[in-house]
Design the sequence.
């Protein structure tokens, strides 16, 4: 599948934003979230900025962005529509949570209630995003539980890494260590989920073959001898993406190294220091590596996934 | 509404006979010609006269070769277009309701006025039936010539999809596959018509008829395993020739 930049940015940015919101709500409920206004403005502001930027970028790849509002209508059957509805509904509790937290209520029950509902809506929105992919039978690499697990873990993981950095920058050493511990746990969980996802791709049997696609399988091996067209077409550009697939193994190693291993080492180091300039620098390194790793992971998620329509263009089994 | 209809009054569709298709691409060309001026017009072309011509087509003709365990092969020309599935995944994934299946005849269409061009329907289709129009910013697909088959300005025999009326070999048939008594349903029953990728759960309406089994080395082919010669290239005898031909032959020999 063609890895569109706008979709890679959308899923990683909004995933990180929703992930931040989840942990802000959890820390608030535990009574650990700092209540000062500058931190609130930066943390909630960044989370909202990531969510909004992601959602906006997802409309950039549309042929008619001005009609995007129509995508909210078919929630009964379409996961894409459900995602749009969930994303918009999530703004209500998340916005109220941020407002309450930064103004009158602070740790009041109302703010926490909005926070918990907002966190649940954030996870629900990430889930609907993952189901857009996991519901497509035509792409066996996506149609499995590991796709859903990947999105549900990597979003909150990314959010935790960002928040750990923010706490380090603002010098909240106490809550920083808690956040680093959560981030480390999610980084370990994340690398396990991705490893199991790739294992699933390796061991699962193909769903469709050139034989079933043409119905000629009973005649023996089915091979394409003449393509309908000599140059590319939409199907091959969108669904037959092959560029750099030969680097897949290298890119997987880069994903594991930058997305998980480096952040685990640097955040672990920062945790041991329990504050100070060095901890901030290590947290920054952890975030930079993690963000690059997740972008690579998302690129691979698309580029590696084979679509069954390629069976009509020379692929033997998908 | 992108929820699929429970049932449709008719199941209009095509039956493609792979035993007859000669791979001439006439169906694709006439499809392009009709639809470039019809409901889905224009079927945009990019760089049509350049080095890499490209564009929106509803019909694509592939050629496959099969090889069995004995090493015997068969060439099969394979037209590919929308199968107007009963459980069309392209319809249910659509977030806007632009992609829909008609209750009256089961034709799957795109309402181009509300399509946002998200392309998800083309991801959901196993058959590559949908092609995105980069210029119009909307998805396009086979309409089963909905603007031709009901067109009372046309003579009755012309009210079939363009690909069917143009096929010089008669490899394509059109009709109601929901009616077991229709000509197309009888044809499917008689010839063992089948679904493409049934494992995808789409329940295609269109059916494909398999190529008839070839009996290699029995009558059809010569002793050398190659196709038999129709006639010897030089004729040694004058048997059956007329009086003048025999007379000329005698003078010339």
Sequence:
């Amino acid at each position: 599948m063609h890895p569109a930049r706008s979709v890679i940015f959308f899923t990683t940015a909004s995933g990180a934003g929703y992930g931040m919101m989840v942990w802000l709500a959890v820390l608030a409920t535990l009574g650990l979230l700092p209540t000062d206004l500058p931190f609130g403005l930066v943390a909630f502001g960044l989370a909202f900025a990531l969510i909004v930027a992601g959602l906006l970028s997802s409309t950039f790849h549309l042929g008619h962005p001005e009609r995007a509002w129509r995508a909210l209508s078919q929630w009964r059957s379409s996961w894409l529509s459900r995602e749009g509805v969930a994303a918009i509904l999530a703004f209500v509790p998340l916005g109220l949570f941020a407002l309450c937290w930064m103004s009158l209520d602070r740790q009041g029950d109302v703010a926490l209630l909005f926070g918990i509902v907002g966190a649940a809506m954030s996870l629900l929105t990430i889930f609907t995003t993952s189901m857009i992919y996991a519901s497509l039978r035509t792409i066996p690499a996506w149609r499995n539980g590991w796709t859903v697990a990947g999105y549900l873990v990597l979003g909150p993981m990314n959010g935790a890494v960002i928040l750990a950095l923010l706490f380090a920058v603002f010098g909240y050493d106490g809550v920083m260590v808690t956040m680093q511990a959560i981030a480390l746990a999610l980084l370990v969980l994340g690398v396990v989920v991705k490893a199991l996802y790739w294992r699933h791709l390796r061991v699962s049997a193909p769903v469709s073959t050139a034989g079933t696609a043409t119905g000629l399988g009973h005649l023996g091996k089915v091979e394409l001898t003449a393509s309908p067209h000599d140059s590319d077409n939409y199907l091959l550009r969108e669904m037959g993406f092959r560029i750099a697939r030969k680097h897949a193994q290298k890119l997987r190693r880069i994903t594991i190294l930058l997305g998980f291993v480096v952040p685990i080492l640097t955040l672990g180091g920062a945790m041991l220091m329990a504050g100070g300039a060095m901890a901030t620098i290590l947290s920054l390194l952890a975030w930079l590596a993690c963000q690059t790793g997740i972008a690579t992971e998302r690129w691979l998620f698309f580029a590696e996934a084979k679509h069954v329509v390629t069976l009509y263009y020379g692929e033997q089994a998908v | 509404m992108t929820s699929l209809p429970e049932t449709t009054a008719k199941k209009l569709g095509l039956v493609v006979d792979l035993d007859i298709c000669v791979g001439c691409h006439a169906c694709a060309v006439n499809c392009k010609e009709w639809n470039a001026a019809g409901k889905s017009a224009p079927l945009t072309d990019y760089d049509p006269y350049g080095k890499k011509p490209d564009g929106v087509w509803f019909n694509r003709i592939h050629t496959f070769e099969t090889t069995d365990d004995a090493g015997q092969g068969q060439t099969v020309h394979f037209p590919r277009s929308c199968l107007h599935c009963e459980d069309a995944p392209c319809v249910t994934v659509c977030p806007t309701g632009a992609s829909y299946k008609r209750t009256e005849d089961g034709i799957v269409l795109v309402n181009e006025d509300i399509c946002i061009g998200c392309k998800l329907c083309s991801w959901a289709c196993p058959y590559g039936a949908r092609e995105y129009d980069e210029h119009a910013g909307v998805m396009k697909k086979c309409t089963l010539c909905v603007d031709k088959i009901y067109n009372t300005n046309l003579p009755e025999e012309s009210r079939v999809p363009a690909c069917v009326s143009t096929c010089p070999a008669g490899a394509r048939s059109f009709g109601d596959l929901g009616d077991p008594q229709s000509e197309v349903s009888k044809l499917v029953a008689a010839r063992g018509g089948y679904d493409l990728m049934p494992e995808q759960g789409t329940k295609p309406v269109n059916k494909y008829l398999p190529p008839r089994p070839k009996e290699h080395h029995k009558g059809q082919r010569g002793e050398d395993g190659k196709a038999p010669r129709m006639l010897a290239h030089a004729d040694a005898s004058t048997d059956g020739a007329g009086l003048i031909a025999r007379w000329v032959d005698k003078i010339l020999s």
